[in-house]
Design a protein that fits this description.
heterodimer; A: mainly alpha; 2 domains; B: MetI-like fold; 2 strands
Chain lengths: ~280, ~300
């Protein structure tokens, strides 16, 4: 009886999830099939599969011919991964200080760091550009990494400190009694425990960085520092847009960020199942 | 506890890197923008201190205030749609996904998250491709099931466009609440759930009585993230409807209004002073929302340590 009921429930769960998966993936499917079609076929029959009569790799060919797309990919990857590393490290450290210790100005510091969630960093673009010009960092990947680290930190601190508050005090105090330094407690006790939260923060810190167009355009538009999203913009004109190339470039740009996501989501699961105190 | 030591240097060490990078590249530039909202161009084009004059113009002078209140109202509706559609769907999906021993859970989780990793350029384009009345996919699909009469040019009608775009945004970002709630649900210890099962609380009532109270802090986080994200939104409207947020400004939100004002668009010249005033107002609105959350809601949430 109860086994049958749970079978029914499992089927219902799969039905709901499958339906939503279709809704989520259908537009992505449309993007990918159209990236393999002729321009005429994209607009004449967007839903048609790429059959021989409308199959066309012109989009991908244009992308590979124009500029140095492998370099753009490499730039995007370096910027995303390095910024992510700093956001997670600095963010977790600050979140630990805020959630663990009672000190004067704790709440104030928390609010100060949370301010950045509320205003888009883009509003400060002009001043940021002036800083980068003054320090000679224009057209370097370092400029982008610094800006994205600053952009990602507030949210990381906010979410991680929320999660760190639920790490058991007994565990940390046991560590202190065993003579661990505060640094050891942070790196070897607390960090492993909040790994699921770190993976979550990583996932949605990296997405706006990977897809950002604004700062690459303003801070690092040079050929050798272009990112993929900026590189794809050469195909979007004011009057004529090479949709084949745009679709191809953006289809390709999905792959690395998807791989990064898969890495983190596995970490998320492993972090949860390997938790020290459960 | 650790407070026996007189100076706890480690607190400084933990805080310093984040605070330094953040202050130099975020707070100082943003402070510059806020300061600028108190100035305006003088007769000879020089910078003149005008106090709160720009804000008075923005809220009260019909030339500006019509657009401002329109954008604010649209933005509020944009947020309401997200709260009513995105977050409940996200929580429901996470609850179903966290069912123990569910096959293909990783596949579903990844598939549902994929829209979130797409760039706005492609999201805007593909939904125009689907919804266009001329070469769109939706009219044909509705025709195939005999519901053609239900089709309307959703992105082109003033009464539908904003809601349509809000739903596209929901489609794109539902993965974020899903992930956060999923992580929170998985971190509920098995003992708690086993104890509930011993007491005969299973299935849906287990979700409402046991899990939901435990994940309330996470629901608080996603609500405030949704609020902040929505009131900073810009890109989707920009790629789908352009900076003029058509039709007839019906999809204009604060982000697009700010963009047009700050950087100028077509025949309109950029006005950095009024732009800064709009930025300052956005900052104020978001600050109020976050304070309501921090002091009104967060302090009342009960946290459970496991």
């Amino acid at each position: 009886m109860s086994a049958r009921m749970s079978t029914g429930r499992t089927i219902a769960a799969h039905a709901v999830l499958l339906t939503y998966t279709l809704i989520a993936l259908f537009p992505v499917f449309v993007i990918v099939i159209n990236s393999f079609k002729t321009r005429k076929a994209i607009f004449a029959d967007p839903l048609a599969l790429p059959w021989p009569e409308n199959f066309d790799l012109v989009g991908y060919q244009t992308v590979l011919k124009q500029g140095d797309f492998f370099l753009y990919f490499q730039n995007s990857l370096i910027v995303t991964v390095v910024s992510l590393f700093f956001v997670l490290l600095f963010g977790a450290m600050a979140a630990f200080a805020l959630s663990e210790y009672r000190f004067k100005g704790n709440t104030l510091m928390g609010l100060y760091l949370a301010l950045g969630i509320m205003i888009p960093i883009r509003l400060g673009t002009v001043a940021i550009l002036e800083i980068m010009v003054a320090t000679g960092l224009v057209n370097t990947l370092t400029a982008l990494i610094l800006v994205y680290t600053a952009q990602g930190l507030p949210l990381a601190v906010f979410i991680l400190s929320e999660f760190m508050k639920s790490v058991s005090h007994d565990l940390k105090n046991a560590g202190r009694i065993d003579g661990l330094s505060e640094y050891r407690i942070f790196f070897s006790l607390v960090l492993p425990l909040v790994r699921p939260a770190m993976a979550t923060v990583a996932v949605f810190t990296m997405i706006p960085i990977w897809n950002d167009l604004w700062f690459p355009l303003i801070l690092a538009p040079a050929e050798h520092t272009k990112t993929v999203t900026l590189g794809a913009q050469v195909f979007i004109g004011q009057f004529v847009t090479n949709w084949n190339a745009v679709l191809a470039a953006l289809s390709l740009a999905i792959i690395p960020v998807l791989v990064l996501y898969l890495i983190f989501s596995r970490q998320l699961i492993r972090g949860i199942t390997a938790g020290a105190v459960k | 506890m650790a407070s026996r030591k007189p100076v706890r240097w480690h607190i400084g060490v933990f805080l310093a890197p984040a605070v330094l990078v953040y202050t130099a590249l975020m707070i100082i530039p943003l402070f510059g923008t806020l300061l600028q909202s108190l100035f305006n161009k003088g007769a000879a084009g020089e910078r003149v201190f005008v106090g709160l004059q720009n804000f008075a113009t923005l809220f009260g002078n019909a030339l500006w205030s019509d657009a401002f209140w329109n954008a604010l109202g649209n933005n509020a509706w944009f947020f309401v749609v997200h709260m009513l559609v995105q977050n409940p769907i996200g929580i429901a999906l996470a609850a179903i996904l966290s069912t123990p021993r569910l096959r293909m859970a990783a596949f579903y989780r990844t598939a549902i998250f994929i829209p979130t990793i797409l760039s706005f350029v492609i999201v805007g384009f593909v939904w125009k491709l689907i919804l266009s009345p001329i070469w769109g996919i939706a009219p044909g699909m509705l025709d195939a099931v005999g519901l053609k009469s239900l089709f309307a040019p959703w992105l082109g009608r003033e009464e539908y466009a904003l809601t349509t775009l809000a739903l596209v945004s929901v489609w794109q970002f539902v993965g974020i609440p899903m992930m956060l709630i999923y992580a929170a649900l998985l971190s509920i210890p098995d003992e708690v759930l086993e104890a509930a099962e011993m007491d005969g609380i299973t299935g849906a009532s287990q979700f409402w009585k046991i899990k939901l109270p435990l994940i309330l802090p996470s629901i608080g986080i996603i609500s405030i993230l949704t609020f902040v994200g929505n009131f900073n939104a810009f890109d989707l409207i920009y790629v789908a409807q352009g900076a003029l947020a058509g039709p007839d400004y019906s999809t204009d939100i604060l982000g697009t209004f700010l963009y047009r004002t700050f950087f100028g668009f077509q025949l309109q010249l950029g006005d950095p002073y009024m732009g800064s005033a709009i930025a300052g107002s956005m900052f104020g609105i978001i600050l109020i929302g976050v304070c309501v959350y921090l002091f009104g809601i967060q302090t009342r949430l009960r946290r459970y340590q496991f």
